[in-house]
Design goal:
alpha+beta, binds zinc ion
Length: 314
């Protein structure tokens, strides 16, 4: 309520109460309301600035939790990406190399992610959501390609399993029997004729009568005793798929023409028959009628004995 106003009446020499007019009351009320609004606004502003409402506190907590989840999700995506990269590397550099097929082109590996239209529909969404979806889509695409690649590899491996056992892949002499390997594949000075010429195989020096093993599954196409053009007693195995191996200067033979042999099977014994300066094995690999370097077909970390052990265990 407004304070009472008094005015001094000189005629009566008394203070008389001044009665407020209607407009005066209205103006006073408006001033009061305006003052209340201003003060309320100031209090609200200060409160908003320095104090959070319960809803804001709840939302801030929820936001912090979501940020934590997002961070963990990114870490998980990164670790999955590393695993996928390793799978791709093993696929291209080991499995496909073993099966003698080309690696998956990079363009194919990159394909399969969501198109730009898909992300255009997400316009207005938070950037981190769009980015996460892109990364997940990329992984999905890569895994899809990898899955198809494995299907192809399994199919090829099944059809090539026979071929893999036939290809000459082991050393024909057991490691511990080997004294040394001399005269590699290539141009050399012949130890007897002293003429420079092509050496179509590799020579293994070992004690006489050392066991000689078949380098791969196949059929004996030649098992002959005699000079044989300097080869001495020799054995030839046809492995199929264009591969033939030849074992020369043997002391005695353990197989005859037409015999089927398995990789790691003893086929004869080392000697010095034919054109030889001492006991050694001259070993040749012929692919599609052309001599190739046998070293390219020897898995040095596996011996005939180890191979036989693997077969018996399997
Ligand atoms: Zn030789």
């Amino acid at each position: 309520m407004s304070k009472a106003r008094y005015i001094y009446n000189q005629e009566t020499c008394q203070f008389e109460l001044v009665k407020p007019t209607t407009w005066g009351r209205i103006l006073y009320t408006l001033r009061f309301i305006l003052s209340c609004l201003i003060i309320s606004s100031i209090i609200y502003g200060l409160h908003t600035k320095y104090f959070n409402s319960p809803k804001e506190i709840f939302l801030k907590r929820e936001n912090a939790t979501l940020k934590s989840y997002y961070k963990n999700l990114q870490k998980e995506i990164e670790s999955v990406q590393v695993i996928v990269n390793n799978l791709q590397h093993t696929d291209d550099n080991i499995y496909r190399m073993l099966l003698d097929i080309n690696s998956v082109p990079k363009s194919v590996r990159k394909a399969g992610a969501g198109g730009s239209d898909k992300y255009a529909q997400l316009e207005g969404q938070d950037a981190c959501i769009i980015e996460t979806m892109k990364r997940v889509d990329k992984l999905k695409g890569q895994l899809k390609v990898q899955s198809k690649s494995y299907e192809e590899l399994i199919s090829l491996a099944n059809s090539k399993s026979t071929m893999l056992t036939c290809i000459p892949a082991i050393c024909p002499i057991y490691d511990k029997d080997l004294i040394r390997m001399t005269s590699p594949f290539g141009i050399r000075l012949h130890p007897i004729t002293k003429v420079v010429g092509m050496h179509n195989g590799i020579d293994y020096f070992a004690p006489k009568n050392t066991k000689i093993y078949a380098a791969g599954d196949g059929v004996i196409v030649s098992s002959t005793i005699g000079w044989n053009g300097g080869y001495g007693n020799k054995i030839e195995i046809d492995h199929g798929y264009g591969y033939i191996t030849r074992y020369c200067h043997l002391s005695s033979l353990n197989v005859k023409k037409g015999d089927k042999v398995k990789r790691g099977q003893c086929i004869g014994f080392l000697g010095s028959t034919g054109s030889a300066t001492g006991p050694h094995l001259h070993y040749e690999v012929i692919k599609n009628r052309k001599h190739v370097d046998p070293m390219n077909y020897i898995l040095t970390d596996i011996t005939p004995a180890e191979y036989q052990k693997i077969i018996s265990l399997s």
